[in-house]
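Researcher: Please predict.
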Amino acid sequence: MDMDLSGRITLITGGASGIGLACVHAMVDEGAKVLIVDRDSAGAEVARDLNLKGHSVAFFHADITSEPDIQKAVQYAKDTFGRLDTLIGCAGVSGPVGSTSPDISVEDWDRVMAVNVKGNFIAAKHTLPLLIESDVATIVFLASDSALVAFEGMTPYCASKGALLMLTKGLSVDHPQIRVNCLWPGVVDTPMSRADLGCPEGFEGTHLPIMPAHQIARHAVFLASPISAPINGTSLVSDFGYLARSALPPLEFN
């Protein structure tokens, strides 16, 4: 299916690795031009490799929690590409995993909120003036199914993703000319999830339902494209149907 993204301009935060990197590849495969914004300088190599393959990709080194950094990144997008059609917010951290509240420092809590919530707000705030000028403006945030259900030892992360859900809704109401949606994936095979769950070699042989990063990236492309035009202010859950299941054991009907 043609997603009608050829020549469109996309800014992807966290595009140097994980889901963000998969989104970069998915967007350029659709013919989009991409600006990777990441504090990881590996994004420069990603951009260089894709340009050698004939795509149009740039990189800007920035910390998502720094408003001056993001202002400069957005200005760079305007100077480089002339406009902006889509923001895909993939930058995120898991924070302290496996700890309960008495053992979580305020500094760790603040760091999770700064990246996962404030960072996405800053990115949206400063891309909005450019996005408003586009006839197909979209914002897609990468949240998590932990916005809806709590996982043990992940309270800061769960709280931050719940906040991202309401940021999505609030932006869509305040700026009706821009479609704003978010994705709620379950466990995605990324370097971060492997580290958090103690599976450095991958998830093969585990009982966990795992999706590859490129699969969720295709979902992001769909929400970013004009194909999904009626979808706004909502979320797409990608969790193999687990949220639809009752927590009760199987009922013994006669």
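Model: Strands lie at 9-13, 33-38, 57-61, 86-89, 138-142, 179-185, 187-189, 210-212, 235-238.
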